[in-house]
């Protein structure tokens, strides 16, 4: 699983790189077009980290919801990383540590320098539902804290996936050196191997393009669940639990009637997970994608947890609502110009109680 570009001797790197970069540029235009559609909502602070982009179509009036944002949690995971070392191996995320130690990552090590800023694509992990990317950044001059915004745009085989979300976090090692981790969750079915294109923008107009073939890790176990319930108008169906050496993920779909995402609760679902001895499995949350379907809001997500060992025989999982405490946003008109600010409306949302369910782990 551990591969370097230098080992792919028979792979036509330059031809593929040119094709992927052309696809990235085209996809970047698609991203821009989506974000300039009529009524676009972008959250402007960190509590309700959801990006709303309203897309009108002939048959369905839909909303693309993603949570690509600057993540304090990811930044915290980088806080102990030394200046020289592995971004994954030295983070405090157990799954990334194990992936790096066991050679499950796609090692890249490619560096591009623009305007005195060198960005190194260090390594990538592609497990059951998430792509995690480690970056090293070194600049000749001191950079502002949020110089790279909320991280990278991306393509899969030259195309922008229909539904994706994730987070981006940095740790500033020195005024000119920092490391970063970005995670990307894709809710649609993905191939086990594909060409990943990445676009990183700097505040002064710089653009770094990376492209690389990646492969999914092996030995992923999937356990169908199909736990469904309806609580106070929220429909929840947990479809699957998957396990690997890098962690656990819980896949779910949820929905509720309405059209206002700021007043929705079905996209705020998280899970508490404990083993048969009552030991909690640490959650790392996960982004949510959603859309309008007729008069309802429909969400999908994969929530990620730390890996478990062979001692765990059963898991008890309890859904709950992690309701936002702050938020708001900005509305854009059909020309992509800011038209008005949106106030936070989620303070009146009420919690609900979901039922717990158990999952036996194959031994």
Helix-strand pattern: HEEEEHHEEEEEEEEEEEEEEEEEE
CATH superfamily placement of the largest domain: bacillus anthracis domain
Gap from first CA to last CA: 24 Å
CATH class of the largest domain: Mainly Beta
Q: What sort of overall outline do the alpha carbons produce when their principal axes are compared? A: globular
CATH topology of the largest domain: Immunoglobulin-like
Q: What's the topology here?
A:
Blueprint: H1 13-35, E1 40-42, E2 51-56, E3 61-66, E4 69-70, H2 72-77, H3 94-101, E5 106-114, E6 117-126, E7 130-139, E8 153-156, E9 164-174, E10 177-186, E11 193-201, E12 207-215, E13 221-231, E14 234-244, E15 247-257, E16 269-275, E17 288-293, E18 296-305, E19 314-321, E20 329-332, E21 338-342, E22 357-360
Parallel strand pairs: 4-9
Antiparallel strand pairs: 1-2, 1-20, 2-3, 5-6, 6-7, 7-10, 8-11, 9-10, 11-12, 13-14, 14-15, 15-18, 16-19, 17-18, 19-22, 20-21
Task: Characterise this structure.
It contains 3 helices and 22 strands. With 363 residues, it is mainly beta. It has 2 domains: 5-35 and 67-215, bacillus anthracis domain (Immunoglobulin-like), CATH 2.60.40.1630; 221-360, Conserved domain protein (Immunoglobulin-like), CATH 2.60.40. Strands 4-9-10-7-6-5 form a 6-stranded mixed β-sheet. It has a 5-stranded antiparallel β-sheet with strand order 3-2-1-20-21, with no helix packed on it. The longest helix has 23 residues, at 13-35. Mean pLDDT is 78; it is low at 1-13, 31-68 and 79-84.
